[in-house]
Amino acid sequence: MKSNVGSFATLNAGARGAVPIFTGGAQQLQQMVFTGSVANGDVTVLKFTGAYFNGGATYNFSYTASTSVPGPGGVLDTSIANLCTNISVAIAADATLLAAGFGFGNRGGGVFTVLYSINAQSGGSPAPTTFAYTNSGSTVVTFGTIPAALLPSGQITTFTYSALLKGFWYSGSSLISALNCGVPLETIAEICNRANVNLHYCIPLFYTAAATQSLATFWATNLNSNLSAILEYNNEIWNTATFDSGRAAILGAALGIAFSTGSVQQLNSFYGNRVAQLLPASVTGWTGAGRSRVSMICTMGVSLFGGSIPDWQNNRLNGALLVTSNAAYAAVGGLGATPGTQYNTFPNRPMDFCDALSYAPYYQGGVISNTIAGFAGAPNAATIAILTAGKNFALGSTASALSAVETDLRSGGGGGDLATITSQETSWETWIQTYTSQRAGAGMSRIGIYSYEGGYQGGLTNSVGGWTTDPTALATQFTNFGWNVSAYTVSGTNNATECAQQVVNLLVAFKNSSNFYSCVHDQLSGQKTIHTANVARTVIGSWYGYFNVPPGNAWSLYPGGLDTTPWQSYNALTDYNHGI
User: Fold this and answer.
1) Which of 513, 484, 472, 518 is closest to 387 using CA atoms?
2) What is the 3 state secondary structure string of 280-327?
């Protein structure tokens, strides 16, 4: 039952009393909501009290509004929105709050998100943090977790209790995000068995050790005996588009991991902690059902682009902050908010419980990228090369036109070309090699690479991964940026639709060409070469998507259904899989 439906709702269930409700959509353990009005000279004082910082005394953060001199955020305090912009910059730089592990985010609309050490310890017990404010004018600040207005009425809703947060997670109100979520495990097992392919499955965020062990037992019992299971804790716990990444950051803060500007150490530390706690349970469930240890591959999910960021190895792989000298972590770092275990030294680091790393090598050109954003701004040498290639292709100069698209894909920049993918894979391999001698000495397997997704994602739409042969979106982009394309149309006129259609036709031809085949095949073989140049290890590539479901996607191996002729990516994958 709802015990409070005021500004911020609480929930009373299971005889726990009224406790907060949290959501993963925003990385927050607290909200500060600013309303009312602001005038020149108004003084807002935000008051933070906790036994673990500032000597236990209330810490006052003070800000004076000015309607004549721009504040730290570069704007005048002429509205609540502007006031929040300036306060967000000032409070993020506050040395006392930073040292205490506070993190703040300005969501807009007068809403601030706050991450802090909800389980900070004082004398062995949690030291509650309290929030208050004063304002000399008409600005009002309200504190809480999830506004009651966000909770639905008359709909299916799931709430999951978190012992670590001492509150409930709100998991949405639709059939997709509430109880009826996910493909039945029996269906997944049947697909693997019929296709004779190994399983790669993500353990849900809220699973316990017992649930993980039971899950592994299910796979051991229901997968064909010749198949292996690759188990990974959750999916893309770094991708801010997912609720679970926000939840992981919140839970990391609850472990006492401090917020750090420009870092994801809260998220990475929580993830590493759960890897160390849950993956051994999957081994127990699998082998306990009679399966061999070598056919259970425990893998750690990482971002391909984390390979060049030390935070990933230090905190996700090596558990640098999972130490019992952190009083909060020592008290609640275990499953169910039980005492934590130190996971920062071999052979008990998160990576030491894994047999593999999993990343997703998605790639695209610098101009023909995963949206039409590569055609933004003023025309430059790279975009002109593609526009020219579109015209040349229309005029019959096929080889040079296809070569231009291939060059864009291989080395066109933009952060996702094949050269960048190779660089990031090399960075991960450098890190992986640091574990080789230790693991060998302990009789552990070499770390494998099991890509969980990946593939080419060039498309000419407004949405990431979208696909269309309709030139409208690209033509509109040309028009919006004021491009004169008369030099790049066969007609010689400034016809944006004609020019866009030429580029679309070129991309279709490219995906049907040997140039595309070579790019796809080279990415797969190059990945294997990078990771096996120094030592032999298992390297498994991946491709996201199979056939095209309306409204279309850039990852598909077919331009339409399975009755259509596949793109050359299909042939490249087939040949690679057969050693060709």
Assistant:
1) 484
2) HHHHHHHHHCCCCHHHEEEEEECCHHHCCCHHHHHHHHCCCCCCCCCH
Question: C-alpha angle with apex 243: 241 to 248, nearest 5 degrees?
Answer: 110
pTM: 0.92
CB atoms within 10 A of CB 334: 17
Mutual angle of helices 398-411 and 514-532, in 10-degree steps:
30
Which H or E run contains 393?
helix 381-394
User: pLDDT tens track of the chain, all 580 residues?
Assistant: 344 444 677 888 888 888 888 876 656 788 899 999 999 999 999 999 998 899 999 999 999 999 999 999 999 999 999 999 999 999 999 999 999 989 998 989 898 889 888 898 877 778 889 999 999 999 999 998 877 777 777 777 788 899 998 888 887 665 455 555 678 999 999 999 999 999 999 999 999 999 999 999 999 999 999 999 999 999 999 988 887 888 899 899 999 998 887 779 999 999 999 999 999 999 999 999 999 999 999 999 999 998 778 899 999 999 999 999 999 999 999 999 999 999 999 999 999 999 999 999 999 999 999 999 999 999 999 999 999 999 999 999 999 999 999 999 999 998 999 999 999 999 999 999 999 999 999 999 999 999 999 999 999 999 998 999 999 999 999 999 999 999 999 999 999 999 999 999 999 999 999 999 999 999 999 999 999 999 999 999 999 988 887 778 999 999 998 999 999 999 999 999 999 9
Distance CA 471, CA 40 (A): 51
Q: 196-235: b or e for each residue (b if 16 or more CB lie within 10 Å)? A: eebbbbbbebebebeebbebbbbbbebbeeebbbbbbbbb
Nearest CA among 103, 448, 100, 147 for reference residue 295? 448
- Please, are residues 305 and 299 in contact by the beta-carbon 8 Å criterion? no
Tell the residue number behind the tokens 């949290």, with chain if given: 22
What six digits make up the tokens of 112?
């601030």
Cβ-contact 494, 473 below 8 angstroms? no
Helix and strand numbers (H, E) in the chain are: 16, 22
Cα–Cα distance list, 126 to 23, 25, 120, 169, 486 (Å): 22, 26, 6, 20, 69
Which uninterrupted H or E stretch holds 212?
helix 209-222
Phi then psi for residue 226, to 5 deg, are: -85, -5
C-alpha span between 63 and 20 (Å, rounded): 29
Phi, then psi, of 533 in degrees rounded to 5: -65, -35
